[in-house]
Write a structure and sequence with these properties.
The protein is an alpha/beta fold and 306 residues long. It contains twelve helices and nine strands.
Length: 306
């Protein structure tokens, strides 16, 4: 039984297989073909956090592949104390071929993977966002080519997205730079683990955004206050003021640089309107690819768990 709880569940070669499969299915769709590779399969989505791209990407992916999808909030599924986590996992697992989960607690997803008896995909937790990172690197490969020749620079909070990007870049040998305010860097323990697991790791922490983006091929950012951190919004506005992705920061990287954001964007905070809407922005290509990556991932996981 294969799961995607974190990117540590995948080998580098397996990520390459998923990317190739996602690209093949995407190319066929452009030609008017929608191969029914998962006809008769069922997916259950279990979400604690609100969603636009995540829910749509997995739901539309499963339908286009010929399968079916059901959606529950954690409360609707009984995870408000009505039943034990283990019992809910076992029940949903008996009805589903794959479960996607979008939660605050990473431990909740880990428990489901241990008890559901079916494939479990982390569609976001406070610790990790593996599907987003896979989509981002898939998008870079599709639009820019050889990933090892790119330089990805993340400007902003060292959150779950930043960590997942660091993990994915480590596996695919992509140079990665993170620029964050003091106290909001990538977790030092996670960085130490990456350095231990990947001796050739090309990870740099640079406090000055202008220095960080030199020769970047992609500048990436995320919201300064993630879901559950809304009370810190005003405080973080002041702390992160110098880490906004502006037209000036893009210019410092050069015309070859592209802009990415996992969305939703807080325009006027972590990024200006002019950057989101400029010709160098590929945020909506990136958003669309959530579906295509989901297709490749679903097919790969289910075929390797049958």
């Amino acid at each position: 039984m294969r799961h995607l709880v974190t990117l540590n569940d995948l080998e580098s070669s397996e990520i390459a297989e998923i990317f190739a499969l996602a690209q093949e299915i995407k190319d066929k769709r452009k030609q008017g073909e929608r191969p029914q590779l998962l006809q008769g399969y069922t997916m259950t989505q279990l979400f604690e956090k609100p969603s636009l791209r995540t829910r749509l990407s997995f739901e539309s992916a499963m339908w286009e592949l010929g399968g079916g999808s059901s959606f529950f909030t954690c409360k609707e599924a009984g995870l408000d104390g009505r039943e034990s986590i283990e019992d809910v996992a076992r029940v949903i697992g008996r009805f589903s071929d794959v479960i996607t989960m979008r939660t605050f607690s990473h431990e909740l997803i880990e428990k489901f993977s241990q008890h559901a008896g079916t494939c479990v995909i982390n569609a976001l937790s406070d610790l990790s966002h593996p599907c987003q990172a896979l989509t981002d690197l898939f998008t870079m490969q599709e639009l820019l080519g050889d990933l090892t020749q790119q330089k990805l620079v993340y400007v902003g909070d060292g959150n779950n997205v930043a960590y997942s990007l660091a993990n994915c870049c480590a596996k695919l040998n992509v140079p990665f730079v993170v620029s964050s305010p003091e106290g909001f860097e990538l977790c030092s323990d996670l960085v130490a683990t990456l350095k231990s697991n990947y001796p050739g790791l090309q990870l740099e922490l640079e406090a000055d955004p202008m220095k960080a983006v030199a020769d970047a091929t992609v500048i990436y950012t995320d919201v300064w206050a993630s879901m559950g951190q809304e009370a810190e919004t005003e405080k973080r506005k002041k702390i992160f003021a110098d880490f906004q992705v502006t037209e000036g920061l893009m210019s410092a990287a050069g015309k070859q640089c592209r802009f990415m954001h996992c969305l939703p964007a807080k325009r006027g905070l972590e990024v200006t309107d002019g950057v989101v809407d400029c010709e160098q922005s590929i945020v909506f290509d990136q958003a669309e690819n959530r579906k295509h990556l989901a297709k490749g991932l679903l097919v790969w996981l289910l075929k390797h768990s049958s």
